[in-house]
Amino acid sequence: MSNTLQNELQDSLPEALPDPVIEIKNLSLSYENENTSFEALRDINLTINRGEFICIVGSSGCGKSTLLSVLEGLSTATSGSVKINGKEVHGPGVERSVVFQSYSLFPWMTALENVAFAVYETNKKRGTRVSRKKASEIALTFLKRVELNSFENKLPGELSGGMQQRVAIARAMACDPEILLMDEPFGALDAKIRENLQGLLLKMWREDEKKKTIVFVTHDLHEAELLADRIVFMVPKRIYAVIEDTLPRPRNYALIQESREYKELYQKLVKYFYNETTQIVNDEGAYI
């Protein structure tokens, strides 16, 4: 087949239809007590498709982590809804795994035991039979994927911060969730370790046979550009804009930083951050 004909056939193929996995509709959340009421989220609407990598950015206290907490099922909306695969969220679920900025590892368990325990318990909740031996085998496989196969018998206190976060990522991925929720997971790490883990996360996401849907909260605009398919820009309480990130994949900083597309997208995000939303932030205040 000639290249011309092949290109024409490719151009004539229909685009893949959207496959919504997370649907957020008219979501609002207020905290109330006897004397005061505080509105944390207001009228959030967002649809996330299966296999998408979504980054949520915005100023500190704008509601990014609160929104993620609702997706986790740890916070309950005052009004509106969150649906996953068409079913309304009413609490945590085995189809979701979470990675926090703090590593949340059991300090008395080795790296291998931390991951294996999560695999065993998650499958137990699913009603799937997995022996403890099999859970350990799965755990070791994922520790190898995050390049910690020679540290599996170390306790968290014997590992650096970057290594502990690798264990946390291995634990989340080993449980084979549909959705990975990540709340500034690299925020406490130095620049070099952070860049290494960003590359590792992208590699695991890209190579996963069943590509996971990732919702990733960050305040770092460069990180969002590197990772995302779409960037959700929040101002206090609400979504201000949703921006397509069309930089070609696979991505790394060396390949994309000097490109015109990267610079234009960064300038747009900075404009939102410091100019167009300044009055909104000043008027609305922030929730931390």
Number of strands: 10
List unreliable stretches of 5+ residues.
Answer: 1-14
Mean pLDDT equals 88
What is the 3D form? globular
| Number of separate helices | 10
Largest sheet: 6 strands, mixed
Series of secondary-structure elements, N-terminal to C-terminal:
HEEEHEEEHHHEHEHEEHHH
**What proportion of the residues is helical, as a percent range?**
25-40%
Cα distance spanning the termini: 59 Å
Class per helix and strand makeup: alpha/beta
* Alpha carbon gyration radius: 20 Å
Measured by DSSP, the beta-strand proportion falls in: 15-25%
User: How would you write the strand order of the largest sheet?
Assistant: 6-7-8-3-9-10
Summary?
By secondary structure, this protein is α/β, with parallel strands linked by helices. Helices cover 40% and strands 23% of the residues. A hairpin with a 2-residue loop joins strand 4 and strand 5.
Features:
single chain, 10 helices, disordered N terminus, four-stranded antiparallel sheet, 288 residues, globular, alpha/beta
Write up what this structure looks like:
It is a single chain. With 288 residues, the protein is an alpha/beta fold. Helix content is 40%, strand content 23%. It is built from ten helices and ten strands. It has helices spanning 3-12, 64-72, 111-126, 132-145, 161-174, 191-207, 221-227, 253-256, 260-276, 278-284, and strands spanning 20-32, 37-49, 53-58, 79-84, 87-88, 96-99, 179-183, 213-217, 230-235, 238-244. The strands form two sheets. A six-stranded mixed β-sheet has the order 6-7-8-3-9-10, with helices on both faces. Helix 6 links the parallel strand 7 and strand 8 (213-217). The protein is globular, with a radius of gyration of 20 Å. Residues 1-14 have low confidence and may be disordered.
